[in-house]
Structures are given as C-alpha cells and as structure tokens.
Write a structure and sequence with these properties.
Elements (H helix, E strand, L loop, with lengths): L3 H8 L3 H8 L9 H14 L13 E6 L3 H4 L3 H17 L2 E6 L13 E5 L4 H10 L3 E4 L9 E5 L1 H14 L5 E6 L13 H12 L8 E4 L3 H15 L6 E4 L2 H13 L9 E6 L12 E5 L1 H16 L7 E4 L1 E4 L15
Parallel strand pairs: 1-2, 1-3, 3-4, 4-5, 5-11, 6-7, 6-8, 8-9, 9-10
Antiparallel strand pairs: 10-12
Helix pairs in contact: 1-2, 1-3, 3-5, 5-11, 7-8, 9-10
Length: 338
C-alpha cells in the first residue's frame, strides 16, 4: 500500500499537506491545483497496470458531466476518469478530456468515439450523438438498446452494507445520502442507494424515516447532514450509519469527531466507493469498494470493440466488495440492548 510519504513525493508537496488534504481538513488553505495533484497521486499509486492491443493514432473524447471544480468534491468520478486515461495510455489511444461546460470545444472530425462519464439529459445525449455516435456511458445507462454502458449494482451494494450491520447486531441504522440532477431538470435522478435502503430496511421491519437524511454528494453535505442528525436525534442517534459515498462519510466523520461522538464505539460508519484516500482518514473508513478504475478501463475496452465492428450494445455491471476497516465494530454482543 502506498504511504502518505509516497503520495507526497509524487505530488511534490509535504506529508503534512497530503494528510490534511486527504482528510478534507476545512482549515487548510490550499489551491485546487495542489489538491488535484494529491488526489491524482493517491489514485495513480493504487492503480494496477494492464497490457493490451495498441490503437496508435486514434483519439477519443472523454466527456465529464461535472465541471473540473465539481470533480474535486466527488473523487468517484475523478477516479473513473483516471482509469480511462491509464487504459488509453496502455493502448496508445489519445484521450481528450472535456467537462460539459466546454463541450463546444470538441471537434467532431478529430475524435473516433466518446466516453461519457456521469449522468446526461436527453438534450445532452443528442448533443453528444451529433458529434459521434460511438458513445460509451459510465455510471449511467440512458438506453441499453442504443448505447454501451458500464454501471454498478448499487442496490446489491446497499444490501451488503445493511446485511453487515445486521450481522453485527445493529438494528437502528441511519442513512446519509445525496441526490443528483440532470442538466435543466428539477426532479432528481433515481438513487438506488436511498431507495434500496428504505425498501430493504422496511422488509426487515427496521425502517425509521427520521434516520434518513439526504442532500448532495459532497464532504460539506456529509458534515452538515450528520450535524443535523446529531442535534435533532441527540441520544437517539442510530448506532450505525450508511453514508452513500466516501466523501459524505468523511464529512460525517468530521462532524462526529467535533461533537465528541466516538467511532466506532458509539456509531459505526460505512461509506461507498473505497476511494484511495479512505484508508488514510481516522479511523480508517469501512466502505463498499467500487472498482472505479476498472469501470474506466472497461469503458475504453468497449469503445475499442466498437472500433473493431461490434454493433450490438452491451451493458456491463462491475461487482463491488465490502471492505471492513476501523470505522465499524467487527464484533458485538448479540444480547446488546440497542
């Protein structure tokens, strides 16, 4: 495992800066460019190389639904993008990176295909198909009869987390999640984590709506929602919390620390993504590992299949794995009164 010292050396900053950036220290004043270097160094050092056929001379457009600034607040998508870039390098493909606020800069004559990372409205999809019809969607499947897609089974991942909590004697389980919106739309995209949490907890006779807090996928909202739960619920705070992304979980950790609530002694916490930074926070974050770099790789491989003539769309599900670290109690007495 790469150390903080390794990351600092690769990013060209001090170990103290790396530690504070990875823990989203709110008091740290540092340029976004420095934060980006730290995050990218952490991801690169955890990346495993692969070999494959070469496609020298072919160029692809990688279109991100976030702005570059927004990407730094949700490393899930940054990690996918880095996986795409690494796989392109291995195959000698040239990736041109665009964020959706500069899609007008794409020259259709220069690219052989598009990888669209994130969630796109129908209007945006029409704009993309007008540029090039070879489109691979990552983390979204707008039409599996038309487009290739690489996705995660978030419903299954959510059940893994709840099952783990139940197996360690937690019955009062809370949820802190986020919602996402397509460009120009006011209704949120369906979030399988939130919907599955409510449905599965209801099936187990354990759902308490007052334990569900939802905002946006950011460290700040993780902190704000956790603080709100602490103030509203007080001594009735759940003993276990599923935060639907690691960045939200890091915000939750910060709030719990500031209010003197011990993790995992009082509250066990599990996030989702297993970003490279999750092992460096305190306590180290238990999480569902999403193989984001593999999602990026797979998208590139699907696009090369299109180059080779495949015409039938594919929808690829990438599996997940529960990673248990120190933010949860791993053994609990079965006669504990919750």
């Amino acid at each position: 495992m790469a150390t903080i010292k390794d990351i600092a050396k690769k990013a060209g900053v001090s170990s103290a800066t790396v530690s504070r950036v990875l823990n989203y220290d709110a008091s740290l004043s540092v340029a976004d460019e420095t934060r980006k270097k730290v995050f990218e160094a952490a991801e690169a050092l955890s990346y495993k190389k692969r070999n494959g056929k070469r496609y020298a001379g072919q160029k692809i457009g990688v279109v991100h639904w976030y702005t570059e600034e927004e990407e730094l607040s949700d490393l899930y998508y940054l990690s996918i993008r880095l996986g795409i870039e690494q796989r392109c390098k291995q195959l000698e493909l040239t990736p041109d990176i665009y964020f959706f606020d500069n899609i007008g800069d794409i020259n259709a004559a220069d690219i052989d295909g598009i990888i669209a990372v994130g969630k796109f409205s129908e209007q945006q999809i029409q704009e993309l198909t007008a540029i090039n019809e070879n489109i691979i969607f990552v983390d979204y499947s707008p039409d599996e009869d038309r487009f290739d897609a690489v996705v995660i089974d978030f419903a299954k991942a959510t059940k893994k987390i709840i099952d783990y909590f139940l197996s360690t004697d937690h019955t009062r389980i809370g949820f802190i999640g986020g919602r996402e919106y397509l460009a120009g739309e006011t209704n949120a995209v369906e979030d399988l984590r939130e919907n599955t949490f409510k449905r599965y907890m209801h099936e187990n006779g354990l759902l308490e709506e007052r334990f569900v807090y939802v905002g946006s996928f950011s460290v700040d909202d993780g902190y704000n929602l956790m603080e709100k739960a602490i103030k509203e619920l007080d001594d009735d705070l759940p003993t276990a919390i599923f935060a639907s992304s690691d960045v939200m979980a890091i915000g939750c950790l910060r709030a719990l620390h500031e209010y003197g609530i011990q993790v995992p002694e009082r509250v066990s916490l599990i996030g989702l993504n297993d970003m490279s930074i999750s092992k460096y926070v305190y306590p180290s974050l238990s999480t569902i590992k999403v193989y984001t770099e593999l999602m990026g790789e797979t998208a590139v491989d699907l696009l090369t299949e299109r180059f080779e003539g495949r015409g039938i769309p594919k929808k690829v599900f990438v599996s997940t794995k529960l990673v248990v670290r120190k933010s949860v109690k791993q053994e609990m007495a079965h006669n504990r009164n919750e």
